[in-house]
Amino acid sequence: MYCVLSDIQKTVPNNDLVQLTDDSTPPAAINQANVDRAITDAGELIDGYLRGRYTLPLLPVPGLINTLAADVAIYRLYARRIKLTPPEGVTERYKNAQKILEQIQAGKISLGVENTGGGVTPETGGPLFTAPDRVFSRDSLEDYC
């Protein structure tokens, strides 16, 4: 897990978390199982983007991944309530998290941890291109220009 309940509580007030997680009527307390499910879903999404680039799970968890996991988990908590539209800020943070994960996957953003997942290289089965030596070069054609 890349985040915990306390990370989510930094953004979402407890009253809202009760409403989002407790399925009883009336909602009385935060349902930890529903929070854990959202956190697990967020971790699986993140792992899907990072698989092949980093050794998973990331330990220790980089701060950026912690923040992204919390943003995705919060969005997943709102998604539990089909009739409830997530607030614009929650949706924006979720979309931003996906964009950042795409950039990490593409290698445009570094997590600051050893990139031991490898990615595709000739040693790991990626393509290897070779070409024969050049017959003509700038120097050999110098007198013909």
Features:
single chain, 145 residues, mainly alpha, 5 helices
Q: Write the element-wise H/E pattern from the N-terminal end onward.
A: HHHHH
Quaternary organisation of the protein chains: single chain
Q: First CA to last CA: what distance? A: 65 Å
Mean pLDDT: 87
Helix content: 40-55%
Unreliable stretches (pLDDT < 50, length at least 5) are: 119-125
Strand residue content: under 5%
How many beta-strand runs? 0
What is the overall shape?
Answer: elongated
Q: What structural category arises from helix and sheet content?
A: mainly alpha
* DSSP summary: helix tally: 5
Question: What count of structural domains?
Answer: 1
Outline the biggest β-sheet. Answer: none
The rounded Rg comes to: 23 Å
Outline the structure in words:
The chain is elongated and about 90 Å long. It is built from 5 helices and no strands. It has one domain. Helices cover 47% and strands 0% of the residues. Helix 4 packs across helix 5. The model is unreliable at 119-125 (pLDDT under 50).
